[in-house]
Design a protein that fits this description.
Helices cover about 80% and strands about 0% of the residues. It has about 250 residues and is mainly alpha-helical. The chain has one domain (about 10-254).
């Protein structure tokens, strides 16, 4: 497919995956990467294109989450500060991850991501009614770890950041909006890193379809978050986190 040629199937897949991602704070790269692998694309075709599309959609989703009052991204607010800290941490985490992704087998790293995401889902589900104390130390560690996951596989950021924020004392709707903004900024670092450190020309033929399909879903997803009750949404997030962890592990072994 040429650089500016669009695929209807990939547009539809991107729309669905991004709708889930912007509604629950997870699922775009984690779900879309294995689907594109099954379709015959290589990891180095998939990951940079996913990072580019999530750069665009992450910032767009943050705008709509702010507009629908799911989060408050005015300069100086807690939501803005958390997203900024996570984005800042992403520089280190993503650069290290991209270098590893380009030079080493990632079986054990994906095993770690799958186990980590699965365990976060379990913790959320067993502590649905528990409240956690906010901690900047937790947020900083979470930002570095999640950015590493994103750079290494194109996925694994949303499940960790959304669930991790919940376990760090952030309200769920705010956590989903913060994840969108932080992920968009993290993906910017990832795209730049791939452009700098890749020894061959990156094939961007997937990017136009991914960007178009994903960005079309963003307003609908942000509105869905506005309408959902936080308790029900937290249950769904916990279940989805657990399932995505199992899917990651299943893909690895089967």
């Amino acid at each position: 497919m040429d650089l500016f040629e669009f695929s209807v199937l990939i547009i539809i897949l991107a729309f669905i995956c991004e709708y889930i991602d912007s509604s629950l704070g997870m699922g775009y790269g984690t779900t879309l990467t294995p689907l594109l692998l099954i379709m015959g694309y290589t990891p180095l075709q998939i990951v940079p294109a996913i990072l580019l599309s999530e750069l665009v959609t992450g910032l767009s989703a943050a705008f709509f989450h702010h507009k629908f009052k799911n989060a408050n991204f005015k300069i100086g607010t807690t939501d803005f500060k958390i997203a900024s800290v996570m984005a800042g941490c992403s520089v280190f985490g993503t650069l290290v991850a991209v270098l590893i992704a380009l030079n080493l087998p990632v079986f054990y790293l994906k095993l770690y991501i799958g186990l980590l995401v699965f365990s976060m889902g379990v913790v959320i589900l067993v502590s649905l009614n528990r409240k956690y104390k906010f901690s900047w130390k937790k947020i900083t560690s979470l930002g570095i770890l999640a950015a590493f996951n994103k750079g290494i596989s194109g996925g694994g950021y949303g499940p960790l950041v959304t669930s991790g924020q919940i376990l760090s004392g952030i309200k769920l709707k705010n956590a989903i909006g913060i994840t969108s903004l932080a992920e968009g900024l993290t993906c910017l670092v990832g795209v730049i890193a791939y452009l700098i450190f890749t020894n061959h020309t990156i094939e961007w033929n997937l990017a136009p379809s991914l960007v178009l399909g994903a960005i079309l879903s963003v307003p609908f997803a942000a509105y869905t978050v506005k309408k959902f009750r936080s308790k029900h949404l937290k249950l769904i997030v916990g279940i989805c986190t657990l399932i995505l962890g199992l899917v990651t592990l299943g893909k690895l072994f089967f």
